Amino acid sequence: MNEAKSRVRLCGVMTSRPARCFRCRRRDCRPSPCTGPRTENSIVTQDLCTHGSSSLSDEGDLQGYIVECSWHEGKFDIRSGQPCALPCTEALRTFPVTIANGEVFIEV
């Protein structure tokens, strides 16, 4: 049985900032848009590292599509959430992104 998903507004589209991690705080989820969000290429993942619960938006280092956790140097590919460097072995949760009328929405 598929769970019903809801569309949640995260923030407005940013056009002048370079790709970077930042945290969007909401009560119903804690995603971290990791590439903008500027265009339809925006990527949203959970904020906390699955290995050590470090905030990837506050303490992580984003290089291209790879975010590195500063606590233990574990890395994730933000496009899929998959870990790509130990000690991380559990994937990040990723969220489908929609851009509409200058706003960024995710499905949760």
What does this structure look like?
This protein is mainly β and 108 residues long. It has one domain (20-100): Rieske Iron-sulfur Protein. It has one helix at residues 56-59; strands spanning 7-12, 31-33, 44-46, 61-63, 66-68, 75-77, 83-85, 94-95, 97-100, 103-107. The strands form 3 sheets. Strands 4-5-6-7 form a 4-stranded antiparallel β-sheet. Strand 6 (75-77) and strand 7 (83-85) form a beta hairpin. The radius of gyration is 13 Å and the shape is globular.
In CATH, what is the homologous superfamily?
Rieske [2Fe-2S] iron-sulphur domain
- Please report which band the strand proportion falls in: under 5%, 5-15%, 15-25%, 25-35%, 35-45% or over 45%: 25-35%
Alpha-carbon distance between the two ends: 16 Å
CATH architecture: 3-layer Sandwich
What is the average per-residue confidence, as pLDDT, rounded to a whole number? 79
Estimate nothing, just give the exact number of structural domains: 1
